Every structure is written in C-alpha cells, then in structure tokens.
Amino acid sequence: MKTSATLLTTALLASPLTALAVQSNYTYVEGDFVAHGEAETRFGGFRSEEDYDGYGFKGSIDITPNLFIESSYDELDADNNGGELELFSGGLGLRAPIGDNANPLDIYGVATYESLEENDGSGIEADGFGVTGGLRWQATPTLEINPYASYLDYGEIDNSNADLDGMRFGVDGVLNVNETFALTAGYRTTKLDIEGPGGDASLDLENEIRLGGRIYLTK
C-alpha cells in the first residue's frame, strides 16, 4: 500500500502539468488497480473479515452534449481464502453543467444494469439495476473531484429466495497530465444487504482504495 502511494506521488511530481482549461470529458477508457479493500460478511452471529485487492476497467462515450454511455468491470480477489468477486455495470447517463467557466461543475445521473458473481463456492449470482448520482467538479485546471452515491438493487439471488440490494459511496480524483492522459485515485465503500427466509445477512466492501490511469479519446 505504501509502495503504491509512493509510486503515485513520484509520478505526479515528475509529470509536466500544464495549466489546461479542461472541461469534463466523458469519452475515455480507464484502468484501475484496487490496492486495498476490506470485505466483511455477516449472517446471524457469524462474522467474517477479509482484505482484498484486484483490478478494474471503465469506459465512457459521449453520444450527445448531454447523454453518455458508461460501463465498468471489477474483479476483486480475497487475500487469504482465494475468493473472487466479479462486478459489472453498464448504462446510460445524463449530465448538465451547473458551474461557471472558471471551475466547470457538472451534475450527472446514470441508470445501469448491474451484475454480481461470487466465485468462492457460495454460488451467489445476481443481476438487477442501479442508479448513480454525482458531481464532476474541475477544482483547478488540472484537478477534477468526483463525489458520487449509488443505489444498487441486484434483485433475487439465483436459485434462492433472497434479495440483494444496498448503497455505494465514493469519491474520485482525476489529475490531468495533458489533454490525453490523466492519473486517477479513488476511495469507495459498498454496503449490501441480503434478505431471505433464512434470515438477513450483509456483505460490505469497505475502505477500497483505487489507483489508475485514464486515456481520453477526444479532446
């Protein structure tokens, strides 16, 4: 974890950051390294905690000045028990500028298809929908701040009578090195509840730290 932070800091200091008047760009591809996360599972009196890491990919395409399509895929691996969680999201977004030209601010919302599969013998597979709202604020000509919140409803878990839903909260920072490339860092927490005839349970993915890079496909 310390090594990843040191590498990111070195890259930032070494990069020629020019004063770009950057508007929020919604056409890009991004790769993330999930450096750290903490998974907690609860069922009745049972409680399990596990650290995890992994990787993720994300892409977005502008289709009109106010509409965009985005999708993401994450693969998260538990450090000790070999468990693996795959998450996919994809959908249509709407954005609107509400800030001034000096520090552009966009408010956006996205409606998504969501799927989740846990490959650790538990057999948890589910798919449903999500709704995300957030801000993209150009705090400086090179630094963008992106706080967001999501409601996730995966519906009924396959081959069970249990439903899975919850919330996700996060914030991303995007440091634009130039008009084509940016460095990214993010923090997020996901809290999911399982409700079924056998009792309620929860799956929390907390304190997730993500480091990555983004390539803009248009200027």
UniProtKB/TrEMBL annotation:
<dbReference type="Pfam" id="PF13505">
    <property type="entry name" value="OMP_b-brl"/>
</dbReference>
<keyword id="KW-0732">Signal</keyword>
<feature type="domain" description="Outer membrane protein beta-barrel">
    <location>
        <begin position="9"/>
        <end position="170"/>
    </location>
</feature>
<protein>
    <submittedName>
        <fullName>Outer membrane beta-barrel protein</fullName>
    </submittedName>
</protein>
<feature type="signal peptide">
    <location>
        <begin position="1"/>
        <end position="21"/>
    </location>
</feature>
<dbReference type="InterPro" id="IPR027385">
    <property type="entry name" value="Beta-barrel_OMP"/>
</dbReference>
